[in-house]
Amino acid sequence: MTFRLGADVGGTFTDILLIDEESGASYRAKTPSTSEDQSIGVLRGIQQACDSAGVTLDQVREVLHGTTVATNAILEGKGARVGLVTTRGFRQVLQIARSFVPGGLAGWIIWPKPEPLAALENTVEVTERVDSDGKVVTELDEDDVRRALRQLKTRDIEALSVSLINAYANADHETRIREIAAEELPGIEVSLSSTVLPELREYERTITTVANAYVQPQVSRYVANLERELTDAGVDGKLYILRSDGGLIAASSAQQNPVSMLMSGPAGGVTGAAWFAEQAGFPDFLTFDMGGTSTDVALVQGLQPRIGRETNIGDLKVRATSVDVRSVGAGGGSIAHVPELTGALRVGPQSAGAVPGPAAYGSGGTEPTVTDANVVLGYLPSDLAGGEVKLDREASRAAVATIAEAAKLGSAEHAAAGIIDIVNENMFGALRLVSVQQGFDPREFALVAFGGAGPLHANALGKLTGAWPVIIPPSPGVLCAYGDATTNMRNEAVQTLIRTFDALTDDEMRSMMQELADEARVPLDEEGIPESEQKVTYSGDLRYHGQGFEIPVTIDLTAFDGSGAGLASLRAEFDAEHKRLFDFLLDNNQHELVTLRATAAGPRPQIGLTTLEGGGKDPASAYLSDTEVWIDDAVVKARQYDRGKLKAENVVTGPAIVTEMDSTTLILPGHEATVHPSGSLLIRPIDNEKQES
């Protein structure tokens, strides 16, 4: 037997999922994250999962890892000291940036502009110039380069980024600077904009390249350390890292281009959700991933998540392809508070995290959190994570009681209900960002809820959005790890063109796409994936001539068959997307292709699918006990069930609580959950399959 192992590191817990490739049987582990060294928690979880499966570590064929190392380095400001080389005259490219200030009226007065990741004193200029067509206007002055690099050496930089004007059109000067840097700055990692982001717009290209250099030393150390410790522990399988777009890359590639990993964790959840939504027969759905620190949401159509061209981490925005995930500071550890100025109850974005955690964890936390509110309302069992976390109900009540007193809400139960209502509205707002505000009606989608806390709030979010059914996959608390283990290898090749359609032909387009496809296939070829098993998809960033922004559009290669229909179909596709987003067209403007992309993907893993034994509608065999919960300002009796004993076709009627090792599902009155043969719970209103609240 051989196994695939998914490992996902979150802000609070590290999730491990071990999958038997032949039978599809899975074994899970959930351990507290070790922020000082994420590999400690990963290795501890891997050992636990292998122990529960009764297998040895040398039977693990592949380790698929979603990590937040790069993300945390940026959020915590703990990246490398970066030196930046620019074309002469562009030294202040990061300081000028873009003229956008967040906030409302007069926001520019109070907004503290974030410090660039490469300080101005660590930025140097070199003499060279290339035009937008790639033609050399001024040759690279190599003596000037050496003087600049020696200046950076005195600044004790730890990583070097090179971003020259128009380097996307001709990378020769950047490549030569890297060669010189190997002589002048031995041992220093170098990031080239022509490799990291070969696209136009000097600011976006520069900030993305600098971000890559900023996190590269830390990511390289972590990946190399994890590979070494896996080998020492007896794991013979290869290590792959999850990209922000939901695909996998070899560990060595991840070390060279870590900026592609910034949304690694959330992307795994969306991939895992697609795996189970497909089995349940719902190709269009919203995802709702609620963890201990934050909630991530996304929209998926036809089992394909919407892909964005920008990634936001804190105040930083970089150009990196990623699943279009929106995050809100609302998780199980989000702290409730009542500001003295307003006296109104607020929840988050501050979080108790894993240490000290919610008051219920008994680890020194005293502030009231969303988890404490769920404990007070009776929604959570006495322990979490398979017994690793014991809940202190009295500590939760004492913490939430402080909110009841400060907000004058009477009882701890009323305060807890208020906390839950507010956090649900916060998460509803995030779901609207990816649906209503993108032109989609959430009532036309299912809602896949996961994460350690997601299933507790899923039924309420279904009522708010009108998205039915609400799907609770098996092992929802470790679904990101499931996504890591069930996705495929992926690589992308990009070319910037900036050509109006009247300057293009179908034959030229087809030729360029085929060249990009060959480039995108290289890492997959190196991993031994046969070309016959690789699938290449194409997309382009388009705009009307004269616009200052682009819209990504999928390109159908088969339309470019020499008949002249290819560009016409692409024009129609762009117009439809522009109309959906903005409700108007610019009929008199030329269409313009700015960037062309090819994405090569390997085959999805061949993993056996598990099917639950049928058991009729009565879930009595899974019944545990009755318990009291607080719903709609009253104490009501709810039935508790063991999810591991539920069978296909069982129907659990609310109010009910379904417990499992890594999560707890709350089913509200007036709703019922049907057990799908794939193991997912499908929650719907009892009266109607679709209902607006």
Give me some keywords for this one.
six-stranded mixed β-sheet; alpha+beta; 4 domains; 693 residues; Dna Ligase, domain 1; disordered C terminus
Unreliable residue runs: 689-693
CATH class of the largest domain: Alpha Beta
Coarse morphology: globular
* Share of residues in helices: 25-40%
Question: What count of structural domains?
Answer: 4
Number of helices: 17
Structure, explained:
With 693 residues, this protein is an alpha+beta fold. The chain has 4 domains: 98-214, no CATH class; 283-468, Nucleotidyltransferase, domain 5, CATH 3.30.420; 490-601, 2-Layer Sandwich (Dna Ligase, domain 1); 612-693, no CATH class. The chain contains 17 helices and 37 strands. Strands 13, 14, 15, 20, 25, 26, 33, 36 and 37 form a 9-stranded mixed sheet that branches. Helix 10 (264-280) crosses helix 15 and helix 11 (370-376) crosses helix 12 (393-406). It is globular. Mean pLDDT is 90; it is low at 689-693.
Task: Set down the secondary structure blueprint.
Blueprint lengths: L2 E7 L3 E8 L5 E7 L5 H16 L6 E7 L2 H7 L6 E6 L5 H4 L10 H4 L12 E4 L2 E2 L5 E3 L3 H12 L5 E5 L8 H13 L4 E4 H4 L5 H32 L4 E5 L5 E3 H6 L7 H17 L4 E6 L4 E7 L2 E2 L1 E2 L2 E3 L2 E3 L3 E2 L2 E3 L5 E4 L8 E6 L18 H7 L6 E2 L4 E2 L2 H14 L5 H23 L11 E5 L3 H12 L4 E3 L6 H8 L3 E11 L5 H21 L8 E10 L6 E5 L9 H18 L8 E11 L21 E9 L2 E9 L8 E3 L2 E4 L4 E4 L3 E5 L5 E5 L8
Helix pairs in contact: 2-8, 5-6, 10-15, 11-12, 11-13, 12-13, 13-14
